[in-house]
Each structure stands twice: as C-alpha cells, then as structure tokens.
Amino acid sequence: MAEAAASRRRPRDGLGLRRAISDRLLPALVAAMTFLAALTLAGVVGATVLATRWQQGAATILTVQVPRPDDPAGPGEAEPGAIGLGTSANGVAAAGSTRIAAVTALLRASPAVIRLRRLENRELVALLRPWLGGMAESGARAGSAGDGSGTAASNGPMGADRHDGTPPAGAGQGPAARSEADADAAGIGLHGTPESAAGHGHEAGDLTANRAGDGEGGAGSDPRRAETGDTTIAGFALPLPAVLQLRLRDAHTPLGDLPRRLAAVAPETAVEQNGDWSDRLLSLAQSLQACAVLALLVVAGVAAAVVAAATRAGLSARREAIEIVHGLGATDGYIAGRFAERAGVLALGGGIAGTALSLPPLFVLCRLAAPFAGGGPAAPGVIHPALAPADTLGGTVAALFATLPLALWIALPLLPLIASVIGWLTAQATVRTWLRRLP
Amino acid sequence: MIRLDDVGLRYERARGQPRDGARAGGRGHGGGMRDGQTRGSPDEVLRDIALDIPAGAFRWVLGPSGAGKSSLLRLLHLSVLPTRGQMELMGIPIHRARRAVLARLRRRIGVVFQDLRLLPELSAFDNVALRLRLDGLPEARIEREVGEMLRWVGLGAKLDVRPRQLSGGEQQRVAIARAVVHRPPLLLADEPTAALDDRQAVRLIELFRELNQLGSTVLVATHNDGLIRRFPAPALRMDRGTLRSDG
C-alpha cells in the first residue's frame, strides 16, 4: 500500500517514454558515433598541432651552405643598398677573409635574421650517420680539425660518390628529417627534402671522394684538409660545405637578392628557405583539418539521423497515448520536451560511454604521433611512458594526462554534451514535425 | 460560449483507406476551414451546422446512431477542425488560433469520450491526475483533489488500479472523473452513462447539472430517454450530419 502511494506520488505523463525510446539501442548507437567523433577530433587536434608547429618552427628557418668555406672570399658587390633581407653591410668582410667569414658577416648584418648558427661537426656527423653509419664518425675523427665545417642534410652524402663508384642508396633523402632535437633541427630536416636535395645536385661535384691511403690526399694524411676542417669519411676526404642555420624574424621574409650577394663573396653558396615547403605542409595540414571537420559534421549528421529514427519509432509506438495526451490539452512543446528530455539523457549516456571507449586508442595514437608533434619517444620496450610502471598512482595518472594534448582534453568532455544537445534538438524537431498532423 | 456558422466537417481518408476507416481531418492533412469544400458535399459527416450556445447552458445532444452526435462533440473538443465555415469557442475564433491557443482551449474543456481513451499504463489516480498535471498544479493539491474525485465516483479503493483491471463501468467513472476534476468551463460527454447502472447514471447527470449550475456549459449526447425525461433541458437534434433543431 505504501509502495502504491509512493508510486502515485511520482508524476507520470502517460507517454510511456521508457517504451517509446529504448534505453539500449539509442545509447549504443550514439556511443559508436561519439567514439568515431573522438577519433576524428583527435585528427583535427593533431593536424592543428602539426600545422602550428610547422608554421612557427620550420618556416622561419633558412639554411645557407657555403662550399669550400675556408677558401678566400670573393670581392663582393660594389653597388650599395641592394642586399637581400635588408642587409646594409654590402661587401663587408669580403676582402681578405674566408668565404664563410664573408657570408657570416653579410648575414649578421641583416635585420631580418634574428639568429645565426653554424652547425657543429658532431651535428653534421649525426645527420650523416643514417646514411654512412660509423664511417661518418670515424671519418670525422680522422679528418676533421674540429672547427665544425661539414655537410648538411640536404646536400650531404647523397651526392657523394662512394668509394666503389656506385651511387649511394637513398640519394635525395634528407637525413635531418629524422632529427627530433629541437625546432632548429626540425628546420634542418625540412631542408633535407627530396626537392631540396634535388636542388643541390651541384654539391655532388664538391663532394669528391678521395681514396684514403692511395697517396692522393686522404683526410688523415692531407695536412691541408686537416687545417681547413673539412669533414672526412673514414678512408675518404670529403670537402663538405659549411652550413649556416638562420632564424628569420618572419616566415615569409623575401630573400630578395641575397643569393646573388652571397654568391658574390662566396660563389656556389646555396640559400634555401623552408617557407615554401612548410607552406605546402601547412596546406596539407589544413586540408586534413578540413576533412576531419567534414567527418565530424557527417558523424553529427548520422547521430541526428539515428536519434530521429529512434524518435519516430517511439512516436509510432506511442501514437495513441500521444493523441490522448494531446487531446487533454498538452502543447506541442510539452510532448516534444518530454521526448527531447529522454533522447538527450540517453544520448548523454551514450556520449559518455563512447568518449570513455575512445581514450585507450587515443592514448596509443597520440603516442605514435608524439615524434611528429615534438614529443620524445618512450623508453625501449615501453609502448608508452604512461603504461610503464609508475612509482605512484598519481604518477601514472599524471603521465596518462600528459599523453593527450590539452586541446583534446578540453574537447573530449564536450563530446557527450554535444551528443546530448544533438539528441535533444533532433527529438524536438522530429516530434514537433510529427505533431503537425494532429489538429 | 459556442458559435458555429455554416460549419462542415469532412474526415480525410488516409491513402488507400476505405471511407469508413477515415481519419479525422486536421490542419496537418491539408484540412482547413477555407479549402473550397463543396457545400453540402456527401463526404461531409457534418454539414451546414449553425449553432449558438451561450455560456452556462445545458444541452442534450440527441439523434440516431450515425447522425453525427459524436462528430459534433469531437469538433467542439477540437479533436478535429472544421473543414469549412466559421467556429468560435469561448470567444476565440478557431480558424485564426495558433496551435498553442488550441491546446490551451482543450485544457478548458472536459470531455468523456465514447471510447473512454484512458491511458492503460497509468493507474486510475494518474489518469485523472494527468489533467491537473498538464495545468501545472502542485502535487499536494493534485493528490487531494483527485482522491476526492475518485472517491466521489466510488473508486476510492481503486486509486492505484490500472484501467484493464477495472470493469467497463469503473473505467467509465474514471473517464468521468478525469473530465470534471478541473471543473471545466465546457463539459462534453458522449454517451457517458452507457456502461453505468441507472443509479450511477442519475448520480452522474446530477453531477453535471451541479457543474452547470456552477457556470459550466454542458453538452451530453445520449440515447437514454429516461434521463432526458428526468432532467429536462433543450436538445440539439442531429440527423444525417445536419442539425435539425437547436433547443
């Protein structure tokens, strides 16, 4: 009796919404949609991160390669005020100095250059290692005077003839693409693209390989090579160019006549701006973003269609009850609101479930994408640091939290809410449309 | 209270549906009062109805089966809308009223349908309470008024029983309780005593007269000559979809 009284006290509207809209099928379908949306959202965030990084990092880096850096510099250009990048030091250091010194002085005088750095020998060796292995290191030890002049990713080993005269495997591939050290290194990596490598085919002529010990001047036995600091490969002497890495004030700073001015003091100096390449990558990233947003819209549309179908099925199942309640004076807003409330709650539940299910694959995906987004690799044998044994529970949670980008952590909780809103709105529209058939 | 001028009603047939299974016309079906319906069309279940009933009136609605009594009451309840003519209810022209206004009007009408139209999932209490809940009354007041109403119709011990567990007469009393619990300005009853014994029928009509004396306009369709004689009142006589006499 008490139960009956309690039951009576629970307001009921007779629409029988528990029967009208199943609490299993709709949440399951919405969960699937939310799962897909979460993965797509991760794609959007990932593309955004990459686009931002490429835009802010590589695009502002300029690479200058100076062959035979320690040879005497040329005379430079006579006419003033025509130097690229706003350089005002026309012809400075051109007379009586080395080519690298002249180029450096010219670049330092440019207001568009905010940082200039010459790659050290060990960096060049690291860049060469994927192609030449230990040869590069031993060669550097044997032949380098340690002043750091050497090769860059783009022009490095690919143009050099091997001692047996066969072209090296992977010619045209920039070894710096594997560099993850910092933004500057990333800039070098971009520099080492097939296109850039192709653009430096002329370097092959510079990179003449001399057989060590054949009496014709291996680095280890050639005092001149040692003095000039040319990097050598074990058994060979490779007169590699010096590489200067510049950070520009702006990604789209025009080069103007800089190449010509540099060539005047150091002929055959190559200037490569990464802006064009990074622009292409940026366009690619933006295209990916657009596709991902489109996919999100499609997922949202499918979710709305699912809710609409479920609502229509519920309306058909409860048609008689709805007509009775409508006849008693219930407004369209009341009936639609009851359906929308039910659909919204079920969609919210499905959304929460789908988002939760998406987290494990997202952790793995973000882990795989970490090197491309500037993150470091995990320890060998560990799929992810977050999955490695942690000292404390807090440490594990913190590591898991750090796995996903902040933007994703902000966006993911919104998915269930968005699913709920879609469910609510769709049910409202569906029911209101259906009710138009009643007077 | 009620004014009808040259009103016609035609039930629209669903596609492929026979005439007898026609659905009620409504705005959503392309119905409307100015749709160029031919005057006196044989498809019309109500034809050329002209009617003016003042507030506080009591009317019997009489006529043989199929005369259009139920259709007239459904029309007055706004379960269907006229397909031609002008209709005004409680001072509101129906053809110009928005849907929300129609809903508000329906909440001011008490109705006992011939087929009762109780919600099978709800208890007797909830079926009656639904009307008050739609008005947004507080639960405490609903509990009091619904309990009182159901006790008055003799169902005080069956508040929590569902309709299918009640007899036909008990179900009819639940429907009656639902129709009058909010003391409507307009009360429409289609054969309300059909499943009641004579004593219950008399009690019910006495309740209607009481509501009428309190200001409600009451229209009752019936075949019960005994009740008509016992409670004399003007009658609307229907015959083959037309109104033969008013009062």
TrEMBL record, chain A:
InterPro entries: FtsX. Keywords: Membrane, Transmembrane, Transmembrane helix. Residues 137-156, 166-178 have a biased composition (Low complexity). It comes from the Bacteria. The chain crosses the membrane at residues 25-51, 292-310, 345-370, 406-427. The keyword Membrane applies. Residues 137-229 are annotated as: Disordered. PANTHER family: CELL DIVISION PROTEIN FTSX (PTHR47755). This is FtsX-like permease family protein. It comes from Rhizosaccharibacter radicis.
Automatic annotation (TrEMBL), chain B:
Gene3D superfamilies: P-loop containing nucleotide triphosphate hydrolases (3.40.50.300). Keywords: ATP-binding, Nucleotide-binding. The keyword Chaperone does not apply. SMART domains: AAA (SM00382). Residues 23-34 have a biased composition (Gly residues). InterPro entries: AAA+_ATPase, ABC_transporter-like_ATP-bd, ABC_transporter-like_CS, ABC_transpr_LolD-like, P-loop_NTPase. It comes from the Bacteria. Residues 2-247 form the ABC transporter domain. Transmembrane segments: none annotated. One of its GO terms (molecular function) is ATP binding. Residues 15-41 are annotated as: Disordered. This is ATP-binding cassette domain-containing protein.
